[in-house]
Amino acid sequence: MNNHKLEELRCEKNLLKKDVAKYLGVVESVYSEWENNKLSIPTKRIYELAEFYEVNVDYLVGVTNKKEHIKKNCDIDISTVSLRLKEVRHYLKLSMRALAKKFNTTSSAISNYENEKFLILSTFLIELSKYSNYSIDYMLGRSNKKFID
User: Fold this and answer.
1) What is the pLDDT averaged over residues 46-58?
2) Which of 75, 93, 110, 131 is the most buried (most CB within 10 A)?
3) Which of 52, 73, 70, 63 is nearest to 136 (CA)?
4) 4-60 — its CATH code?
């Protein structure tokens, strides 16, 4: 993940790391590790950061350099994420097993994502977006624009 965007967006708003950490309800050291790319940011937190900064997730995580203003004013909906993951998998014409193999995970993990048991991992989501060209914002239900420009 391209976390220099986090620092850039934080500085644009004249915020300290502790301010963003407080907003997210995490300790400053954890937020600092996210910003310094030492720790993977959970999908829920990526969503919250995108909402906070009112930007597209695709920009926030460095999948695109095109910054768009998006503000959904709601929490992540796991059922939308689940449905859109299935859509992406069908678009790629891959079974759960084939998708899992391609991304070095298990078919049970894919099944858990698609059956709303767990929210998709951010690292998997980012790699899937890069591979499929599907927008992360679309997959997370923040936008109806399917593909990255």
Assistant:
1) 97
2) 110
3) 63
4) 1.10.260.40
Q: Using CA atoms, how far apart are residues 73 and 116, in angstroms rounded to an integer? A: 22
Q: What is the SS3 assignment for 134?
A: strand
Backbone angles phi, psi at 147, to 5 degrees: -110, 155
Query: What one-letter code names the amino acid at 6?
Result: L
pLDDT at position 3 over 70: no
The CATH number corresponding to 78-139 among 1.10.260.40, 1.10.10.10, 3.30.1370.10, 3.40.50.2300 equals 1.10.260.40
- Percent of the chain topping pLDDT 90: 95
Note every long-range contact of 121-129, with CB atoms under 8 Å and residues 24 or more positions apart, other chains counting. Answer: 121/40, 121/42, 121/43, 122/1, 122/40, 122/41, 122/42, 122/43, 122/46, 122/61, 123/1, 123/40, 125/43, 126/1, 126/61, 126/63, 127/103, 128/85, 128/88, 128/103, 129/58, 129/63
pLDDT at 83 over 80: yes
Q: What's the chain's Rg over C-alpha atoms?
A: 15
